[in-house]
Amino acid sequence: MGERKASRDGDRKVGRRALLIGGTVAAAGSAVLARDELARLWWRAPGVEKPRKEGEVDYTGARWVAASEANWRRADRPDDFGIDMVIVHVTQGSFDSAVKAFQDPGHKAATHYIVRQDGHVTQMIRELDVAYHAGNRDYNERSVGIEHEGFVDRPQDLTDEMHEASARLTARICARYDIPVDREHIIGHVEVPGTDHTDPGRHWDWEKYMRLVRRARTAPA
User: Fold this and answer.
1) What is the C-alpha separation between 161 and 116, in angstroms, rounded?
2) What is the band of 221 on the pLDDT scale with cuts at 50, 70, 90?
């Protein structure tokens, strides 16, 4: 969630991409694109849904708590939208308040994960789906969002346990999608173009965090 600069978060009501089927395909290239698009989005047809297991998590050890469906949209990532970024947030509140907000359909925002101060990881949205967390549609579609329990102006909230658990999580996400472990691909909410948030704030130790991510990235799975 994070501290805001001025107004509300940006990416709220996001419609599904239209799939136009019909007509004669004049060029072979167009036919290939249409076929690939249909292959990615077949499950969006009425009465069809991509198979999923209720309560399944993408990160071993995470606990599943579902966010409201109003706060994310179904997708088929990385097939329909490539994932090349992790975005770091701070909740500006307690873990419980963040979970409550993400379960509220009126909140219109949520991240894929929340990391508690004690290092516990909760997943609320599957990585294959698009979470409304960045305030920028393009960044939402290409990223995984991770919240961290605490306040940006309280350095004591950003515990070692939180940094280490989050770094392991980010390392696994980077490994899964072949994301480079650098500050161009692991960014703070404040760095998203058009955002009105300031998190994770000046007390977030990026040097320490990136060192931990690199260490976890090269450690045996």
Assistant:
1) 9
2) low
- What token pair was written down for 74? 């179904």
Residue in 178, 173, 182 with CA at minimum distance from that of residue 214: 182
- Name the phi and psi angles at 82, rounded to 5: -70, 145
Task: Say how far residue 59 (Cα) sits from the centre of its chain.
Answer: 13
Distance between CA 70 and CA 89 in Å, rounded?
20
pLDDT value, residue 51: 75
DSSP letter assigned to residue 158: S
> How buried is residue 191: exposed, middle or buried, by Cβ count under 10 Å (0-12/13-18/19+)?
middle
**What value does the mean pLDDT take over residues 195-211?**
96
Q: Which residues contact 180 (CB under 8 A, 6 or more apart)?
A: 174
The residue behind tokens 């939402």 is: 140
pTM for the structure as a whole: 0.81
Predicted confidence (pLDDT) per residue in 82-104, tens digit: 999 999 999 999 999 999 999 99
What are the structure tokens assigned to 99, written together?
């979970």
